[in-house]
Amino acid sequence: MAIRLSGMASGLDTDSIVKAMVSSYTTRKEKYQKAQTKLEWTQDAWKSLNTKVYSLYSNISNLRFSTAYNLKKTSVSDTTKATVKAGSGAPSGTQSLKIKQMAKAGYMTGAEIKADSEKTTLAQLGYTGGDAKLEVKMGDETKSITLSASSTMNDVVKELRNAGLDANYDSSYKRFYISSKKTGVANDFTITGSNIDGASALYSLGIAYGGEKTTTGTYSSNPYDEYAALHGVSDDETRAKIEAAVTNYNNLTTDAAKMNAQSKNLMNAVNYGYSYATLQGIYEKLDANNAGDSDKLKLLEKLGSSRDGALISKNGASYDTYTKTTLTDTKGNTLYKYIDSDNNSHYIAAVADTDKGTTSYYDVTESTRTAYTDADGKELEAVPTGDGDTTLKVGDKTYKKDEADGKYYLQKEDGTADKTDFITVSQKTEYTIEAGAVNKTGIESASVAYDTIIKSMDEKTKSSYDEALASVQAFENSKDEVLGSDDKYSVASLTKAIQNAYAGNGKEAVEQLLAGNGNETDGFVNKANALEEAAEANTKKAADSNIVKELASKQKDSSEYTQALNDLLDRVNTAYTLQNKALFNSQVKKVAGQDSEIELNGVKYTGDSNSYSINGLTIEALAETGDSAISITTSTDTQGVYDKVKDFLTEYNNIINEMTKLYNADSAGSYEPLTDDEKDQMSDKEIEKWETKIKDSLLRRDSTLGSVMTAMQTAMMSSVEIGGKKYSLSSFGISTLGFLNAAENEQNAYHIDGDEDDANTSGKTDKLMAAINDDPDTVMQFMQQLSTNLYSAIGDKMKSTDLSSAFTIYNDKQMKTEYTNYTKTIKEWEKKISDREDYYYNKFTQMELAMTKLNSTQSSISSYFS
C-alpha cells in the first residue's frame, strides 16, 4: 500500500478526490454485491418453499396405502373399568372383556424404629457391626448395597433408590416405605443380607422381612430358605445339588417353551380353520358363477403388492405370470418377464397405442452384440482392426487396446496414448419383437383382474373375504421359532390337518376338528388350554429354581460357568448360615407384586402391567370386573377418514396458495438491494419496506415454480379408474371455486362441499361423507391413487440433476455456484479498487512531497531577502 499524505502541503481533500476517481469501480462492485444479495434472498425463498413441499411429499407417502384410511373407532360399555383404542387392524364388531385381576407393584411398610430424623445413624439404632452387605433383587437383576454404623436413614434411602426402588423414610411415623417402580410379579423385590452384618442391619432398620411368624417360631417366607435348600453336608454335595437344580430348570423351561408354542399355534389355528373354510366357500361361490375364477384369484392373492407391476395369461388350466422389468426393447417398449418350469426366462414387449388407448403384447427375441462406448457413455460406430482386434477405427481416429485394463485409448501423433479419450468394449443384450409376431391375446393386468373379481362380490362377501384372507395368509406365513416342522402342532402340521379336513368333508369337518366332539381333551381349543396350563405349571416350577437361572444360561464347560457355580456355592453357604441366625421384624408388612389378568372373548391374557395390545386393540385396564363382562364395540371411523382427506387438502391448499401468490406477485420494478451508504439515508421502517418489496417479487413468473405448480395441479385434476368407472375429486364434491369466485391467489385451492369449517361451501350437500359411509373402499382406492399421482409428480420434480440436489424442486447447485462466483468477482473488484486507490494516492503523495520540497525551497530563498 502506498504512503498516503492527505493534503498536508496542498490542502486538498485527497480522500474525497480519490473516492470520486474510483467511483466507477465501486459502482461495478456494488452491482455484483446487490446481485449476490438478491440471489441470497432468492435462495432463502426457495429453501422455505422447498421445506414445505418436501413436508407435503413426505406426508402423502403414507396416503398411498390403504392402512392410512383403514381407521377404526371403539367404545366401551363401562369406561370406569377400561379404556380401549382401536388400531387399523382391529376387527369390526363387538367383543367381550373381563378384567380378572389388576397388576400391582411390590410394596413394603417397615416396622417402627427409633430413628427420630433422617440423620439418625445405624449406630444410634443399636447396630454395632462392621460393613453390612445387602442385596436388592428385582426380577432377574440383583444389586449390592454396603452400609456401615455411620450410615444415616437418608443414606439408606439413597442406596435403595440407586438400586432401583422407590424408598422414603417418614420420621413422623418412624418407618421405611419401599416399593418397586413397576407393577407385576417379575418386577417385585426382596431385600436380604448377604452377610451376618447385613441381616443385622436390616433388622435394625425395621425392614427384615421373613413373612408371618409361625407357631414354631419360624417365618413363613424366610428369604434365605431358597438358597439354603441347596446346601449339602459338603461343598461337593452342594455343587451336585446345584447342578441337579440346573438340569431340572432347563428341562422345565424347555418344555414350557415348547408347550406355549404349541398352545399358541393351536389357538391361532382355530381362527385359521374358520377363516380357511370361509375362504374356500367364497372360492366355490365364485366358480359357480364363472368357472376358474377361484384359481385366478388364488394366483392374484399370491402376487400381493406386486400385482401393480404384473400381467397374467391363461395357460391351459393355470395362469402364467409376467412381471414388469426395467428392460426395454430396441424401440423403447417396456418388457415383462415370465419364468417357465425349467427356470428359463421369456420376455414380451408391451406396445401402447396412445391414440386408441390400447396396449398390445408381442414375443421378443434376445440377442447379444458388441457395443463400443466412449468415456462419456455414448455408443460409437467402431471397426476392429489389427491382429486379434488390437485396434479400433472410429472415423479417422485410431484407438489401441491396453492389455492392462482392456480399454482402447486414442493414439496421439507421437505414438503415446491419450488416457482421457478411450473406448470401452462390452457385450450388450438387445430385445427385438419377433418378425411376424402377432398380438398375444388373453393377457390382462393383474391388478385390474383382481379388482374385477373383487368388485363382483357383494359387500358382505367382500368383507368376509378380506378378513378371511388376512387371517389365512397371516397363519400360513408365520414361522415356528421353537417347534420343528415335524411337530404335530407346528404351523405346517396344523395347516395340513385343517386343509385335509376340509378336503374330506368341507366346513363341517373343520369345525369338528377345531371344537372337538364334546370331550374335554378333544378339539384345538381344549388342547391349547391344556397345554397352556401345563406350560404355566412348568414355568411356576422353574421359578422356584430361579436362583440357578443365571448359571443355566452359561455353557457348562466354560470358565464363566465354573466362576458362576463357585459364586452360587458361596451364596448357598451364606444363606444356610443366615437361615437360622437372621432376625426378622414381625411388624413389617409386604404386599407382593402381582400380574394383571384379563379375558378377551374367553381367552386369558396375563401381563406385568395393566396395558395390553391384542389384535389391533390397545386395552388399559382400570378396575376389576369380576365374572361380569364389559363389551368393546369397534367400527370404521368414517369421521376419521373424512378428516384424513380434509387434512391432506388443507396442507395441499396452503402450499399451492403460497406458490400462486409467489408466482403472481407484483413486480419490484427498479428496486434493488440497498448499499450501506443508501441505508444510512433511510429509517429502519423504510429499509424494511424497501427490502420486502423486492423479496415478495423474487419468484414472480419463475419458470421453475410454474413447472412445479403445473405438475401438482395436473396430478390433482387427474381421473382414476375404479371398477371400470372413472372418478375425480369432483365426484366426491371436492373442487376449486374458480377464478371468479375464489379469493386472490386461491383459485387453485380445493374446497369440500358441506364442510362446516368452509364458509364458501358449508351450505352444499356433503358428497364426501356420503361416499365414505356408502362405499368407503372406492373413496380409499381413489385417494390412494390420487396421492400416488401427486407423490410421483412432486418426486419427479425433486430428482437430482446436474443443477439441483435430490429432494429439491429448484436449482440449488446452480445457485450455489453462482453465489460463489459472485463472491470471487466481488473480491476481484475490491482488489481493483484497492490497486486503483493505491495508484492515485501514490500520485498525490508524490505531489505533496514535491510541494513540500518547493515550499521548503521558497522558504529558504525568502530567508536570504529578509
TrEMBL record:
Similarity field: Belongs to the FliD family.
Record protein name field: Flagellar hook-associated protein 2
Keywords assigned: Bacterial flagellum, Cell projection, Cilium, Coiled coil, Flagellum, Secreted
GO biological process: one example: cell adhesion
Chief localization: secreted
GO cellular component, as recorded: bacterial-type flagellum filament cap; bacterial-type flagellum hook; extracellular region
A Pfam family the protein falls into: FliD_C
Occurrences of domain Flagellar hook-associated protein 2 N-terminal (ranges): 10-105
Subcellular location: Secreted; Bacterial flagellum
Protein role: Required for morphogenesis and for the elongation of the flagellar filament by facilitating polymerization of the flagellin monomers at the tip of growing filament. Forms a capping structure, which prevents flagellin subunits (transported through the central channel of the flagellum) from leaking out without polymerization at the distal end.
Subunit and interaction comment: Homopentamer.
Annotated organism of origin: Agathobacter rectalis
Residues covered by the Flagellar hook-associated protein 2 C-terminal domain: 593-856
